[in-house]
Amino acid sequence: MSFHLHKFPLLSRSGVMERLIAGPSEGEEGCTIKLPDVPGGAKTFELVAKFCYGVKLELTAGNVVYLRCAAEHLEMTEEYGEGNLISQTETFFNQVVLRNWKDTLKAQETCDVLSYAEELHIPKRCIDSLAAKARTDPTLFGWPMVGPCRALEEVFCGTG
User: Fold this and answer.
1) 10: closest CA among 70, 57, 58, 74?
2) ∠ CA 83-114-20, rounded to 5°
3) pTM value surpassing 0.85
4) Which of 39, 57, 79, 97 is the most buried (most CB within 10 A)?
5) CA–CA dist 114, 66 (Å, integer)
6) Whole-angstrom Cα distance, residue 70 to residue 66?
7) How does pLDDT run across 106-126, given as a tens digit for each residue?
8) Alpha-carbon distance 48 to 37, whole Å?
9) What angle do CA 7, 8, 12 make, to 5 degrees?
10) Of 80, 87, 81, 83, nearest to 64 (Cα)?
11) Percent of the chain at pLDDT above 70?
12) Cβ contact 40:69 at 8 Å
């Protein structure tokens, strides 16, 4: 898939794009860059490009891992703009996704196809979040887990 984009919005937000675009001189008509390894592919790169153009992205549990990995790959750090894509996706992931069962599971599912996710410890963070939720929700497994002796006493003796 091809994208026809202006240089400045891209290079002002991405270290990788800055290095790739810096080569052509002023007199050239255009610049063609191939980015075959962007995590999430063309669909994710389209969202990244929109972000670079100042379009407010709707972050979801289904796209945040792809965007976080693409942002890492493209070096979209605070060095290239305050509130850049790495920080926005990290904040959303930590403050929204990891606080909700359904969102955490959805994000975990998207990790399977992204090698960058493993490098960013996203699967581990999802699993840790799910484990913490399981420990704090005593009704999750169908019966109270108030301690081994008390729970067994309630079940077998009918006390409680």
Assistant:
1) 74
2) 55
3) no
4) 97
5) 8
6) 6
7) 999 998 777 889 999 999 999
8) 14
9) 120
10) 87
11) 79
12) yes
